[in-house]
Design a protein that fits this description.
By secondary structure, the protein is of the alpha/beta class. Among the domains are: 83 residues, Arc Repressor Mutant, subunit A; 106 residues, D-Maltodextrin-Binding Protein, domain 2. The chain is 38% helix and 21% strand. The protein has nine helices and 13 strands. The strands form two sheets. Strands 3, 4, 5, 6, 7, 8, 9, 10, 11, 12 and 13 form an eleven-stranded mixed sheet that branches. Helix 1 crosses helix 3 and helix 1 packs across helix 4. Pfam families: HTH_1, LysR_substrate. This is LysR family transcriptional regulator. Keywords: DNA-binding, Transcription, Transcription regulation. One of its GO terms (molecular function) is DNA-binding transcription factor activity.
Length: 311
Amino acid sequence: MDLDMALVRAFVLCAEELHFGHAAERLSITQQALSKRITKLESDLGLTLFDRSTRSVALTESGQRFLPPAREALAAADAAVAAVQGTPRTLRVDVLHERLAPAVMARRLVEKDSAIAVELSSRRTLTHAVPALLRGEIDLTFGRIHGQQPRALTHRIIRLEPLLVAVDADHPLAALDAVRPADLADYGLWTPTPGSASEWSGFVSRLAQTFGCVLRFPNVDNVTAEEIVARSRGAGPAFLTGTDVQNPVDPRVRVLDLVDPMPVYPWSLVWRTAERHPLVAHAVSVLTDLSVADGWCDALRHPHWPEGLAA
């Protein structure tokens, strides 16, 4: 059968976002139009690709099998168009999630050098992005490096993102100008369920253990001000988040810096060691320069946690 690449692209974006609204925004179409594309693709294949409910979207077993070759087919189609039109190849960057620090850094890359054409994807975790990088489906990705990494990949810390806590405006911590991690032991912490993002869950679990905090992972996809207020009301746990995350802005919520020491999340830029494409080398150079110019690792000037980090 002949696959309609528009349908395949819709499927891949839905699989990356696991949210039809977010995927529709990336495609610049309505959510209804996106649903029709997915329904058409499922009809053509004779398979159900997503388990959908009013609260969640998940890949079926068939959808999980279809995703890797679907990505490869898209990459091949894009390369074929570029070859015929004589256009430069797009830099394919996985930012894990559009709300996280890598998306901010990717935007700064384009702002700094508008000649760089960037195609973003969101695989949600470095664990998923690394195989795609090794297969050549993407050119760059970001993540917290932990454990042994393949020799075929090179990585460099490019952002030390200070962590923050948010609480109800009437919370005991809200009266402070800043919070020490040790101050959180009496209240505890919460952060959204990590799913497959072991880099984040492992990091915050280690932080909580180091400073004697009870840590909770509620099943919350999109953190709202209402969620923060409800969970921290009285003397409840504080919401742990990052400086670069799109956190809710609301007068009912107080956002506080963490200091003495400042917990920072170490974001590394990751690319193939043997990469020969000049666009990749150029992007790595621009992002490295931006890291210095924009102060992405300025946390090194302050007492920080974990120790031993170097940009």
